[in-house]
Amino acid sequence: MGARSFMLATRIPMSRDGFAEWLRTPLPGLDIIENPSAMYVGWASDGAAPDWDLAETAAHYPQAVAGIRAGRDKTPLQLLAPRAAQGFSLLRHRDEALEVYLYDYHGEETSTQTDLLMLAGAGRFAHPGTEAPVMYWGGDVYPGLPMPGDEPLAIMLVTHTRARFVDTHPLDTLIANLTPIETDFLTANAYGEDEAPPQASHDLLDPALRADPVADQ
After folding, report:
1. CB 137, CB 152: distance < 8 Å
2. Are the C-beta atoms of residues 18 and 102 closer than 8 Å to each other?
């Protein structure tokens, strides 16, 4: 996929207690996702094979595999607190929901897969009956939801028990639901060409991520 930037966004209904429990529970195994091999089916990279087992990564970057696997053994708090401190992340519990907008400048597929696994596991702490879509998409440099006519890279539906990738979804409705989250993210991260990137905004980060950034490390 080249040197592109990658974004993830979702809104998963859950209680404050569920959010706190999710933050401190290690990521689930890959079996939480019903069809991981179908990640790209139906979307912009249809036909691509996701490297969930890290075989391709091991062939080209063997030294990276241990670190990736170690990351997948962590809790969301361990993964998110250092990332949130760097900015370009919206991670919060608001209005009875987990809200997420992650921006990875020139990110890697394996990092995104770890994030998808983390969000797949969030469904275990969601309100019963939840079926929440997670959108994964890419761009050249700047974040921003897909424009009309553009396709995401993948959409994963998160339920109270499992998650699964889907090959079709009403994008207009999904984008409309995620736009308020995107607006907060873009407003907080707006800066000019001659300015340094902003630090993490308190409006974007849940207090649980700010209070003790090294918790559970």
Report:
1. yes
2. no
